[in-house]
Amino acid sequence: MKEKHVKDKRLMVGIIDVHCHILPGVDDGAQTLEESKKMLELEYKEGVRTVFATPHFRRHMFESSMEKIEQQYQKVKEIACGIGDGMDVFLACEYHVNMEMVEDLNNKVRPTMAGSSYVLAEFSGDSDFSFMRERAYDLISNGYRPIFAHVERYRCLGEKIERVEELARLGAYMQVNAGSIIGEDGWKVKRFCKKMMQEDLLHFVGTDGHGMKHRVPHIAQCAQYMEKKMGQAYAKKILIENPSEIIKTQ
Questions:
Q1: 71-101 burial, b if ≥16 CB within 10 A, otherwise e?
Q2: Which CATH number fits the domain that encloses residue 131?
């Protein structure tokens, strides 16, 4: 695995990774406990002190039992305690949105973000904007605060950033992946992410880490880029202060 080069060794410490597939053997993320440990060690090295474990939930694709997820979460949380001072892991879920989502959340079929009213909501890349808006309204009107996972992937939003603004006005929050901000998914996506920052439409950043070979959980370079382009106060707001509010409201 080729290591990413971080030009400035001065790291922002206290970053909260709101989106990471770090629980082993429950989805397409980490497959072993040893891989989970290596991911945690890397996150800590890059300034992260809190990780939200967000295993996928998607009907007929990712449906690991909550019993297994809880078991793996406790193992990873225990490992985190030995990684370094202040390292912690919270349980959440990346829920692929469907018509039963509110009912599932009400019945605790899947967890919200650390037991708060925030929920990480994923859509298909070709989802229709009207469907996104309807699902966001349904969640919000039922007391949930949806965080749209990796919004840079949704074609209907990339075509018109005004749609992102409409969702934000409705009460939804926007998360993008750290790699997308620094150009790993191409200049067009990077430009979209920069526009979101400039328009104050970005609320959270996550690594969307899946392992140590694919979608490695790097975030330090993104933090430094955000500081350079938007200022230190802005970077801290997105990477530390905003996600801290999730934990406070649990």
A1: ebbeebbebbeebeeebebbbbbbbbbeeeb
A2: 3.20.20.140
